């Protein structure tokens, strides 16, 4: 039996860049195949070749044993290949079934009228056959991202796709939705469909795929069965060297109090309370991690601290000074760096090049501004140094931000903020969308900042990240800290419980009583957590205790 | 994609060129030519049809072969439109291409440049607000207020100084400044309303246009009207206190100095927008307000500042209108502020583009006067032809896409913008987007291919 797809010696050159170099790939019918690689490894280019968006410079695309030459995606669709992009292409005000048939509507009245009954019936039938739980009459605007993704899949199936290409399908999903997506994969492959998904996440490839192909710098490193490979082996294939999966944090004595947040209440854009009475303090040389499911108030908390959002009540003191009513500009000038959650909205001006983006936030400050003018030479040097230090690819400061991939955009933002010489770094999901090699670098850099005595507030939904980097770990649920724990000793299960809003038996804590939590966390430090990362260390513990005592006093 | 020749050009040249590099040279030339030719083609047909419908004793033009007569000669219309606007540098009905007697300092060209000068100011006014993400429809009102402020200030201070060239310089400078302050304050009102009361600036500026026109009218009618004047107008400001029409004929109402001032404003504004922290704040607010806020830009203050600057530029336009064109404030203020909106759009809201855009408008204005003067073609029809040219030139987007489809310019799956070349069906949308958001460096690498 022929493989569903055979890419034979695909080379794709852009002038100056070889995006894919002689890549051979065979994908079995009815299998789930992960295409794994770092940002810029050539995964998306390869899939764009398969989907007819690019023509290969050399090599052949063979679908179901038949060599093909696609001039456009239309040809690829006719050959039974469907692609689901990272950003969905759905019409929000239209219903699910309307979106599915859009562009290929069954017609009556000699093609003048859309046969709505037949169309809707076809969509219902399709979604039942694959066991999709989708209401055909719901409006896209009203359904969750996970359902929208299934609509995209239905759309591809409706157009007769046998091979589904999905670009970073889990990037936009909650953990539960990811599980549901895996179920969908299973259902589809059971019925003979083939799935290729692009990912840079090891865990995802291991748990969802039958086979994994790793690309690095446009070259295929190898194809392995997911059953026969370990995380570490995969990571090494991706990065090309051995990877330390966990950053090594060393305990350090926290210094002066940088940030003190007291009974903070913050509302979101709709006026609904998102942060409900959070208190904590943060010292020099300390990393406070905030873990939680997205949308539990982390964003609003970070924005309130960095001057982007006025708190409804409560106070934020920075080096002992209240920050109420202080402008965003003043927050930056006083040494607060902020890696925002939304890089497309806030972190970067998408139509500016990196030179201009490099001074965002510093546009009034020397060395970039002097005598009422902007020194573009200094700005260019700055952008170049960030690009070099943080490995932003391609290293072209004159390219617009929107032309970079998400991971490279993120690296640039993090670089700009980290190199601001801040006293406090508030980093919201700093490594989101960033590949392993660069994530490792960002983690190291963050720990360097900590070693330099900076205070770091790290918000992340990646458990291993917050757990591995933090000195203290607060878990946020519905705008409150459901617990503050010692990351060295807590288990993933315990964090999971806290994230779901449960309290731990021996650690009954609330936002207003963090010091208790910290004490309790320390008491429990004798019992090593199963998946605990970092070095449990008594010296570190006693430092934290000191900090706690002072907070009680304050 | 910007600066694909990045390293080889000096930074300043790169920045000047940046707004243009999205399109290849071949495409841009083709677009401009196609736009003008197509508008002329359509206009040609309209002139012919109107000429067939209209009644006249002798045909201005007879169609070959068919022998049909037409009242208006479409070739003559366009020749007069462009040639006339420049004062006939090309010979008409004589041997030789060029008109030997032509000098640039003629009446028609003066009228063209006069309109150009005034539209530079209103175009800049609209452009600077646009760059801050604000739609200032109120340049007209700001111009009216600025013009009145200038006229009254000059009339007030001129008697205090001994007449002469030195007093002229002082009075013109102070008068222009008064126009800027008047227009600026008038522009600050919708700016403050937008910033602090969340009032839509489109609506407030439109309303303030009426307020400005009527308040100025009543003020002049009741208080400042020149004695014995048959129209509602102030007294004339002294001759020496006006922009003098050096080199150009007096009746052209054009002063070279005013055009130089306008060009100076273009350079100054370009510099302010592109090379100062204020300009950075302003532009960032305009393209991505959330990012500006993140970067410490005070959104409210920037809104007020941008509207004040915009109003001040409109006010200077009013000052020049008084001190160059009319010599006084008069109720029939031309629609310079509204034309400024189109000028700004034609210029892509780039200060540097305002000069050619204003000049195109000036040409059409000067040419229209010539057509009325030299032919039987009614002014309304000339208005249609002007509108057609503007409409076509303002639609480069359409031609850009057409050029791409024809396979001109950058070829193949280069940058995100070009990768949709292949399919004209629904999928081309998808393809452009996919390449743009693709998570591989190749998306950018490919774009560099266009170099």
Please give a structural write-up:
The complex is a heterodimer of chains A (554) and B (451). By secondary structure, chain A is of the alpha/beta class. Chain A contains 19 helices and 24 strands. In chain A, the strands form six sheets. Chain A has a six-stranded mixed beta sheet with strand order 6-9-10-3-11-12, sandwiched between helices. A six-stranded mixed beta sheet of chain A has the order 18-21-22-15-23-24, with helices on both faces. In chain A, strands 2-1-4-5 form a four-stranded antiparallel beta sheet, covered by helices on one side. In chain A, a hairpin with a 4-residue loop joins strand 7 and strand 8. In chain A, helix 13 (376-389) crosses helix 14 and helix 14 (406-418) runs parallel beside helix 15 (436-451). Chain A starts with a strand and ends with a helix. Mean pLDDT of chain A is 82; it is low at 507-554. Chain B is mostly helical and 451 residues long. Chain B folds into two domains: 1-72 and 375-451, no CATH class; 107-374, ABC transporter involved in vitamin B12 uptake, BtuC (Orthogonal Bundle). Helix content of chain B is 65%, strand content 1%. Chain B is built from 17 helices and two strands. In chain B, strands 1-2 form a two-stranded antiparallel sheet. In chain B, strand 1 and strand 2 (69-70) form a beta hairpin. In chain B, helix 4 (107-131) packs antiparallel against helix 11 (299-326), helix 4 runs antiparallel to helix 13 (351-374) and helix 12 (336-346) crosses helix 13. The longest helix of chain B has 33 residues, at 165-197. The radius of gyration of chain B is 25 Å and the shape is globular. The N and C termini of chain B lie close together (10 Å). At the A-B interface, helix 1, helix 2, helix 10, helix 11 and strand 20 of A face helix 1, helix 9, helix 10, helix 16 and helix 17 of B.
């Amino acid at each position: 039996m022929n493989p569903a797809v055979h890419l034979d010696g695909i080379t794709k050159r852009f002038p100056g860049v070889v995006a894919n170099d002689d890549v051979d790939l065979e994908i079995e019918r009815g299998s789930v195949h992960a295409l794994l690689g770092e940002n810029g490894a050539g995964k998306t280019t390869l899939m764009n070749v398969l989907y007819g968006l690019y023509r290969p410079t050399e090599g052949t695309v063979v679908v179901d044993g038949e060599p093909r030459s696609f001039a456009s995606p239309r040809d690829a669709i006719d050959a039974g290949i469907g692609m689901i992009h990272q950003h969905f292409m759905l019409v929000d005000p239209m219903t699910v079934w309307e979106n599915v048939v859009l562009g290929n509507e069954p017609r009556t009245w000699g093609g003048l009228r859309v046969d709505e009954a037949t169309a809707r019936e076809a969509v219902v039938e399709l979604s039942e056959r694959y066991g999709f739980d989708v209401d055909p009459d719901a409006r896209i605007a009203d359904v969750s991202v996970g359902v929208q993704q299934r609509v995209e899949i239905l759309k591809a199936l409706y157009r007769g796709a046998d091979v589904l290409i999905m670009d970073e399908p889990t990037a936009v999903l909650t953990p539960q939705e990811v599980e549901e997506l895996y179920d969908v994969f299973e259902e589809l492959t059971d019925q003979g469909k083939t799935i290729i998904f692009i990912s840079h996440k090891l865990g995802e490839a291991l748990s969802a795929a039958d086979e994994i192909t790793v690309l690095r710098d446009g070259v295929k490193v190898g194809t392995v069965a997911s059953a026969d490979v370990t995380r570490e082996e995969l990571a090494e294939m991706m990065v090309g060297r051995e990877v330390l999966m966990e950053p090594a944090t060393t305990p350090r004595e926290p210094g002066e109090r940088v940030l003190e947040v007291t009974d903070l209440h913050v509302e979101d854009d709709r006026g609904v309370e998102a942060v409900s009475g959070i208190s904590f303090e943060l010292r020099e040389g300390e990393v406070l991690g905030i873990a939680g499911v997205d949308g539990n108030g982390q964003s609003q908390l970070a924005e309130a601290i960095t001057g982007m959002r006025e708190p409804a009540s409560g106070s934020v003191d920075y080096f002992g000074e209240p920050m109420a009513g202080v402008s965003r500009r003043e927050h930056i000038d006083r040494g607060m760096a902020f890696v925002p959650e939304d890089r497309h909205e806030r972190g970067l001006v998408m139509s500016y090049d990196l030179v201009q983006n490099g001074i965002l936030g510093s546009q009034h400050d020397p060395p970039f501004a002097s005598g009422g003018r902007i020194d573009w030479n200094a700005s260019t040097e700055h952008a170049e140094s960030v690009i070099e230090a943080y490995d932003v690819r391609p290293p072209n400061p004159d390219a617009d931000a929107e032309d970079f991939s998400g991971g490279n955009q993120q690296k640039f933002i993090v670089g700009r903020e980290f190199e601001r010489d801040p006293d406090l770094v508030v980093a919201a999901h700093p490594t989101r969308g960033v590949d392993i090699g660069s994530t490792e670098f960002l983690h190291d850099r963050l720990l360097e900042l900590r070693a330099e005595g900076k205070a770091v507030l790290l918000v992340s939904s990646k458990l291993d990240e917050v757990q591995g980097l933090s000195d203290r770990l607060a878990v946020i649920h519905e705008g409150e800290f459901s617990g503050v724990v010692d990351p060295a000793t807590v288990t993933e299960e315990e964090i999971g419980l806290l994230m779901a809003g449960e309290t731990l038996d021996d650690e009954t804590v609330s936002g207003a009583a963090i010091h208790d939590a910290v004490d309790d966390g320390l008491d429990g430090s004798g019992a090593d957590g199963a998946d605990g990362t970092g070095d449990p260390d008594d010296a570190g513990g006693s430092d934290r205790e000191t900090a706690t005592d002072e907070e009680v006093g304050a | 994609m910007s600066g694909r020749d990045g390293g080889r050009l000096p930074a300043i040249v790169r920045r000047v060129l940046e707004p243009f590099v999205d399109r290849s040279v071949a495409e841009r030339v083709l677009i401009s030519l196609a736009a003008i030719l197509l508008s002329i083609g359509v206009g040609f047909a309209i002139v012919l049809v109107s000429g067939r419908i209209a009644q006249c004793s002798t045909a201005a033009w007879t169609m070959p072969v068919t022998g049909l007569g037409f009242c208006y000669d479409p070739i003559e219309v366009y020749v007069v439109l462009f040639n006339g606007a420049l004062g006939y540098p090309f010979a008409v009905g004589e041997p030789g291409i060029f008109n030997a007697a032509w000098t640039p300092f003629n009446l028609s060209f003066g009228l063209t440049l006069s309109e150009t000068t005034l539209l530079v100011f209103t175009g800049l006014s609209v452009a600077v607000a646009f760059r801050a993400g604000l739609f200032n429809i109120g340049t007209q009102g700001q111009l009216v207020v600025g013009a009145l402020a200038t006229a009254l200030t000059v009339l007030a201070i001129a008697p205090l100084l001994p007449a002469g060239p030195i007093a002229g310089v002082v009075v013109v400078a102070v008068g222009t400044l008064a126009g800027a302050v008047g227009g600026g304050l008038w522009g600050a009102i919708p700016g403050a309303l937008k910033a602090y009361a969340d009032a839509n600036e489109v609506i407030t500026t439109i309303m303030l246009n009426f307020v400005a026109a009527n308040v100025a009218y009543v003020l002049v009618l009741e208080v400042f009207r020149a004695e014995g004047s048959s129209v509602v107008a102030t007294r004339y400001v002294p001759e020496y206190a006006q922009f003098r029409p050096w080199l150009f004929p007096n009746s052209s109402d054009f002063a070279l100095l005013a055009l130089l001032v306008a060009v100076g404003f273009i350079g100054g504004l370009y510099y302010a927008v592109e090379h100062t922290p204020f300009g950075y704040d302003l532009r960032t607010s305009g393209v991505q307000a959330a990012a500006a806020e993140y970067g410490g830009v005070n959104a409210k203050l920037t809104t007020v500042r941008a509207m004040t600057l915009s109003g001040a530029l409109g006010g200077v336009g009013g000052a020049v209108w008084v001190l160059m064109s009319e010599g006084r404030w008069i109720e029939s203020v031309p629609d310079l502020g509204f034309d400024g909106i189109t000028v700004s759009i034609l210029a892509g809201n780039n200060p540097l583009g305002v000069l050619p855009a204003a000049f195109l408008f000036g040409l059409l204005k000067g040419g229209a006067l010539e057509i009325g003067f030299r032919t039987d073609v009614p002014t309304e029809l000339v208005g249609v032809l002007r509108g057609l040219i503007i409409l076509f030139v303002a639609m480069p987007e359409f031609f850009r896409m057409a050029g791409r489809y024809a396979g001109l310019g950058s070829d193949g799956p280069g940058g995100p913008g070009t990768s949709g070349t292949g399919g004209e069906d629904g999928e081309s949308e998808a393809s452009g987007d996919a390449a743009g958001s693709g998570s591989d460096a190749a998306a950018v690498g490919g774009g560099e291919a266009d170099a």
